[in-house]
Design a protein that fits this description.
The chain is α/β, with parallel strands linked by helices. The chain has 21 helices and 23 strands. Helix 12 runs parallel beside helix 13, helix 16 packs parallel to helix 17 and helix 18 runs antiparallel to helix 19.
């Protein structure tokens, strides 16, 4: 048994394991690949600008994530073609069908990406071009394999022209029309060939060679070599190959136990049946049986006293008995009511969420589904759907209500937060008060809720836009309350604002609370969303490009419930297909690794630092103020008395530098004070209330005309994530321009721990230009980034 899945990034541990195996397999099967090209695969996943292609990696996995075969594809979205860089199977598995299954998946992936054609190179099979019989037989075998799928070499061009006279055995360019049934046009192939030669082989092909090859493509349409190994009437067998991994579907199998047979109680078992009946025939989902979550998973986010009470109360109830809260005592932790029926109001926030044995069993199984969904993401799955009832997003740390007993989304988010930042996006008509309260003082989980204004919508007491978190969590909660009458476009605009804040936060995972009570005609809401609106919302959420767990919340109009869920997931999948690579990053300090960030802010509205090249009237010595969430920030460029000690304290506070590095940062400040500009060191300091919040040190590269080095950049932990690091880099770039600089270089470690650092540089427009192996220590390479200043 095997599965074929796409490796979207090298951020998850499971993906890193698979990527390492892919790199090993490519090294074994293609001995001529430069080591740096194999090692850069992770970088290529995150940075499409390395070769101006989007990289797609497919891995065929057996048990235990053992890679049996792999493929590396370059996608060019504007010209609309895919280039198959490598397809490799383990030598002992040749001929077992894995190659055919993988190539079918490659073709399907190319179609989903919107490619008009799939191109790749194959060595020639003629005696003239390949005189070695053994190599010729191997080349012929490959061309025969691809011919089965309709892929044939392009003829009548100079693509096989040697770049140098001594070159031999030049490859054919092979074209697969992806069942389009026609030969490609001249203009299309010219654009494709130019992109391949200029981007993939720029270090080998001089411009005059590129022009000569491109101009040689003259046939209209371009001719393909006639079939050589199979009859012209041959048609490949129909193979249904999914171009995307199905959504893991985790359904609570105990939800029907929870059935409140009272008039008007809308949270009924028929809800899940309506959803399953619509989504399972779509073929987009794969059922996964959830294993039991540890009890600790609940206690990680919920008060042990509340959990203990729910267990005790259900034990004294008859199987069909319902216990409704009816007295709501002032919550005195020292003197909770003793009677179980009275104590219900101590832990509940409303009068319509009864306690019963079936309700608790169903809620406990919902926790299993959400927890298992989180594990699916950690195993490399891109999408999972916890289809549960009762819902959970109104359950807070120590109280339940709103049909909710345990907060499924919060439990999953806490599990994921052990591996990276998490964003919770709540799209229910009612405010997600549960996750807001649970993560109120945390900065590693960013909670966002789009909902009806609590002036008219449950739960009435939370969900206002001035609720932003507290202490370490200040700024990590975002409420977007909307008016009573909203259509799909209104909600989509709010989601656009939320998506921007999520991108600023740079999470590794998204937990999406899906409420369908925003639908037209829902008995608990007043909005008017239809299926097409849910599709658009799904596409906008998918465009974030994050591994996403969807947890079912509200939605009570059963006639349209299923079609709306299906439309949402169709949009979500479409959005993920179009999403660009996800760049890892966690802040602005050079050595930052997994340091939690502060809240995303609107720094783009604030004044730019001096020397940013945007027409500021301030000179190099000016001090310019900018407002922020925490106060007033001021910039200055000249170090003064005490700055060496302050820089030393700032660098040490980041926790990202070695002890022996900290004094070096201070020494550069002292040298600048002693020697002035002759030292070659220049600075940009950012202060708040007299406290140093960030700084950068840079200067011209000796013996160059106009190149600069960024030596140091550090941001205090309390300010990381505000965008201050980016503003510092922009300020450095502006100062360098004023001093005649045309390029800025940055050096950092190429070790895995520094992925966030390198991702930060890439997002600031810096390209990786070199990797020097074992530079800092054995196994610790130096990565150099460069930006050309406009």
């Amino acid at each position: 048994m095997f599965r074929i899945r796409r490796i979207h990034d090298d951020l998850l541990p499971t993906n890193r394991v698979v990527l390492r195996q892919v790199q090993e397999l490519l090294g074994e099967r293609f001995s001529g690949i430069p080591a740096v090209e194999i090692e850069s695969l992770g970088e290529r996943l995150r940075n499409p600008f390395l070769q101006r292609f989007r990289t797609v990696i497919l891995a065929v996995e057996g048990p235990g994530h053992r890679v049996k075969a792999c493929a590396v594809i370059s996608h060019e979205p504007e010209i609309r073609f895919c280039f198959l860089d490598y397809l490799a199977t383990r030598a002992k598995r040749a001929g077992d069908g894995l190659g055919g299954a993988l190539y079918e998946r490659i073709r399907s992936e190319a179609k989903v990406l919107g490619a008009r054609g799939l191109f790749f190179e194959c060595l020639p099979d003629s005696v003239e071009a390949s005189p070695d019989p053994a190599m010729r037989r191997e080349n012929a075998s490959r061309l025969r394999f691809y011919e089965r799928f309709g892929a044939r070499p392009i003829m009548g061009t100079l693509y096989e022209l040697p770049v140098k006279p001594e070159n031999s055995c030049m490859p054919h360019l092979v074209y697969d029309g992806l069942d389009g049934g026609h030969e490609p046009s001249r203009g299309y192939v010219r654009r494709v060939v130019r992109a391949i030669l200029e981007r993939k082989y720029q270090h080998l092909c001089p411009p005059e060679y590129v022009e000569r090859v491109v101009e040689s493509i003259r046939d209209q349409p371009v001719k393909l070599r006639p079939p050589r190994y199979l009859p012209s009437t041959y048609r490949p067998p129909e193979v249904m190959q999914r171009a995307e991994e199905p959504v893991a579907l985790l359904v609570t199998d105990r939800h029907e136990l929870h059935h409140v047979r009272e008039r008007g109680y809308v949270e009924a078992p028929v809800r899940l049946g309506a959803i399953l009946g619509a989504i399972e025939p779509s073929g987009l989902f794969e059922r996964v049986v959830p294993s039991a979550a540890p009890h600790r998973a609940i206690l990680d986010v919920h008060d042990a006293g509340m959990v203990r009470y729910l267990n005790e109360a259900t034990r004294i109830l008859d199987p069909e008995q319902l216990l409704y809260p009816y007295v709501f005592p002032i919550r005195n932790p020292a003197r909770p009511p003793r009677d179980a029926s009275v104590r219900a109001g101590y832990y509940c926030i409303d009068t319509f969420t009864p306690i019963s044995r079936p309700a608790l069993a169903a809620a406990r199984r919902g926790v299993d589904c959400a927890h298992a969904g989180a594990l699916e993401l950690l195993r490399g799955r891109r999408l999972a759907y916890a289809l549960v009832r009762p819902p959970g997003h109104h359950a807070e740390h120590s109280v339940f209500g709103g049909f909710c007993y345990f907060n499924n989304a919060a439990i999953a988010a806490h599990q994921l937060s052990r591996h990276g930042r998490v964003a919770i996006l709540d799209l229910d008509y009612h405010h997600g008060n549960g996750q807001q309260e649970i993560f109120w003082r945390r900065s590693d989980v960013f909670t966002i809720s789009i909902h009806g204004n609590p002036r008219f919508a449950y739960p009435y007491f939370t969900g206002f836009d001035d609720e932003r978190g507290e202490g370490p969590g200040a700024g990590f909660n975002l409420n977007l309350p909307l008016p009573e009458r909203q259509n799909g476009q209104d909600v989509l605009r709010a989601l656009g604002k939320a998506a921007g804040r999520i991108r600023d936060f740079e999470p590794m995972f998204l937990v999406l609370c899906l409420g369908l009570d925003t639908a037209k005609g829902d008995p608990t809401g007043t909005w008017s969303l239809r299926a097409r609106d849910f599709s658009a919302l799904g596409q906008a959420a998918g465009a974030l490009g994050l591994p996403t767990l969807v947890v079912q919340e509200g939605g009570y109009k059963t006639r349209t419930l299923g079609q709306n869920v299906r439309a949402f997931f169709e949009g979500l999948l479409a959005g993920q297909r179009k999403a660009g690579p996800r760049l890892g990053g966690h802040g602005a300090a050079v050595r930052i690794m997994e340091q939690p960030a502060r809240a995303p802010t609107q720094l783009d509205r604030e004044p730019a630092p001096p020397g940013d090249g945007q027409g500021s009237e301030a000179g190099p010595e000016a001090v310019k103020a900018m407002s922020s969430m925490t106060g007033t920030l001021t910039y200055r460029t000249e170090p003064g008395r005490g700055d060496a000690e302050r820089v030393s304290a700032l660098v040490a506070a980041t926790g990202m530098f070695h002890d022996y590095e900290v004094p070096v940062a201070a020494e550069l400040v002292d040298e600048r004070i002693a020697k002035g500009e002759a030292s070659g060191y220049h600075f940009l300091f950012v202060e708040e209330g007299g406290e140093l919040r960030g700084y950068a040190c840079f200067g011209p590269v000796a013996c160059t005309a106009s190149s600069f080095d960024l030596f140091w950049i550090a941001v205090h932990p309390t300010m990381q994530g505000h965008g201050l690091g980016r503003r510092l880099i922009e300020g450095v770039e502006g100062r360098a321009r004023e001093m005649g600089g045309t390029r800025i270089y940055i050096e950092t470690s190429h070790r895995e721990q520094y992925l966030p650092t390198r991702g930060f540089y890439q997002r600031c427009g810096y390209d990786l230009v070199s990797v020097l192996e074992d530079f800092y220590a054995p196994g610790d390479a130096k990565a150099t980034y460069c930006k050309v200043l406009s």
